[in-house]
Amino acid sequence: MKIFSLKKVIISSLLLTISFFIEFVFTKFFFQDCHGSLIKLELLPIVLIGFLFGLKFSLCANLVYVMIHTALEWPIINMFILNQTRYLQLSFLMFFFIFPYMAYSLSGLFQIKNSPYLMKKNIIKSLLLISFMQIISYILCIYSFYYYSYDSLFLIFESDSWIITHLNPFLSIYWILVIYINIMILLTNTLIGCILLFLKPIINENTEFNL
């Protein structure tokens, strides 16, 4: 039992390392800053941990990822004077970073302990559930800024996103962010789903995951 748990920890740690590599190398250098990127491929390994090892391992791995990610993104929050409004600071941290990222742990609810580990219907169900939770979280975040009329939220993305820059003359910043976030969720989760479907036969035939 201890050997099996150790193998799970090792594989989860490897996938978590891949996640950071994708974020800081692939996303940063080939797309844009991680906080404003439309496609967040770094979350794929987190989803995979849930499918392979269940909710407990997925939550633990995701919590480590979110803690490190939040610590790195904290200066962004302070750059835009959010520290002057503690409620907004907490709201931004919880609803924009922590909850949407932790939602990917829900893939652990669809774990299958024996092969096949990945099933098409489970992949679709999990990503739909994750997307729903993320949309709710982001809407709560945007509503908090709308309630306090804090338009500086726009500055967090203005320099990174050509979509927001081009839509700004025509729509309210809050509607722009709603559109942007929904596009981000759609692109990210659709791409993650496609990659998981591509990896499905490879992972299902690998007996190393039969822990």
TrEMBL record:
Protein's name according to its UniProt entry: Uncharacterized protein
Transmembrane as UniProt keyword: yes
Record-annotated membrane-spanning stretches: 12-31, 43-68, 88-106, 127-148, 173-199
Highest rank taxon of the organism: Bacteria
Keyword Membrane in record: yes
This protein's UniProt keywords: Membrane, Transmembrane, Transmembrane helix
